[in-house]
Amino acid sequence: MKTFNFNAGPAALPEEVLHQLSESVINLDGSGLSILEIPHRASQFTDLLNEASFLVKELARLDDDFEVLWLPGGGRLQFCMLPINFLKDGKKAGYIHSGHWAEAAEKSAKFYGETEIISSSATEHFKALPLLENQYPGYVYLHLTSNNTIEGTQWKTLPANLGSPLIVDMSSDIFGQHRDYKTCDLFYAVAQKNLGAAGVTMVAIRKDFLAKHKTDVPPMLSYAHQVKNNSMLNTPPVFSIYTCLLMLRWLKKNGLQNVINTNAEKARKVYEAIEASPYFNCPVAPADRSVMNVVFTGKNESIEKEFLKFAEQNNVLNIAGHRSVGAFRISLYNGVSEAAVEHLVSVMNQFTPSATY
Ligand code: PMP
Taking the model in full, what pTM does it have? Predict the structure, then answer.
């Protein structure tokens, strides 16, 4: 059965990558071994890990002043590692409060030191991005979430020269939107959306910023120790990292700019279908709408129930949204094909509720 998956993560991967993965589980590159069996300290794996790190730097146009890490523990461990490594007594970390995940990052950091919400759009229920002043000097770092996965808002450009080091959670839009990655001192992304499979988080750190790390940190939680050990203090999630490598190769082969243009086009079509429908409504401020997670509601609850059923009958899967913002969320990450979006839009256009509301 052909299905069309719009899950927010773990997300759809390109068919080509899925075929390569399934081949590698039986026989990795003709080695006679499965990707699940290879020794992680042998060059058979370290070459793959190093290639993945190299491709991150190439696609993000980073120079050798950045280190790339592949860490376990998801985005939520990064919420803790950041303050554990950088938040010092008598100093503050500033958080831009743009939604659920931004809030979770700040709440985790509070366990380790002083934080401050420097801007928030909570009073607008995160339907728009918070406004930023020009400068926020004196913070150990400022934390921003580039794409708010649940609320469906996205920074179109990253704020530059804020006066303090900038850390960006790019979990739901890395390599999906044009970015000047050099604006960041550290950026991270969980793999299970735009980058690969769940189980690993990519972290890129500017060496100058890394040098400011605290030293009283256990090795597993220390960026500096992880860098020294090339992300292999413990046995790394080999399969997840390999999936990221295949996605990175796919991005390079297709051309990052082409993928970004396709993403913009996919999103345009879905927003257009929402606007054109008498049954749907997009609550997100037009200027801040995400190209990765399109959030919308039905005009009433019965329409929402009927559309969810209709979509499932037409093999459109995993579109239920977070109730706090919208009944539906269509995730359009890099691995979601244009054909899947065409199908979704035709299902949206065909939808007519059984009763007149
Ligand atoms: N940050 C963002 C922007 C996210 O969307 C998510 C997960 N959806 C996370 C962090 C948390 O990731 P994890 O579940 O891997 O901890």
Answer: 0.97
